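HUMAN:
Just now I want nothing more than another pair of eyes on a protein record. I would be glad if you read both lines and explained how they fit together. I have put the entry right below:
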Amino acid sequence: MYQDKITSLDSPTQSKMVTEKDVIAEARTWIDTPFLHQGRIKGRGADCVGLIIGVAHALNLTQWDYRAYNRQPLPTMMKSLLDEQMEKIDLKEMLPGDILYLAFTQPQHLALLTFDNTIIHINQRIAPRKRGELMGRCVEHILNDTWRQRIVGVYRYRGLSSG
């Protein structure tokens, strides 16, 4: 459906099997990356989608990308792309390394689950605001009941090996 907006390079070649531990380790290297709408550069700026795509690119899981979205992405578009590009997982089957599709007022946010009952994600309002500044950044924090109730879907990178 949204194929015309996706950047896709040749299929990646993996030199080793990528596990959920690799996904989480790579995601943790993004911690403190500032929020930047449609950003994809670790340490310089990314958004929640940029984190998920950046981790996949770093681990050669895929080279697809999509940037034709607004600051408040359309939930139907986001779900369609997740369904096309990732493996949908039942909520009861979620594991560390999986991607959580989250809703605030509507589904529009992504986070990565770790082994420690924490999530890693980038949010533009995760830190207190200073006058006129957004202070968002990539953080890791507990997946408490408030965050757990926001989960509307769970996805897994294709090509991931359990280990």
Q: What stands out?
A: Residues 33 and 45 are 6 Å apart (CA to CA).
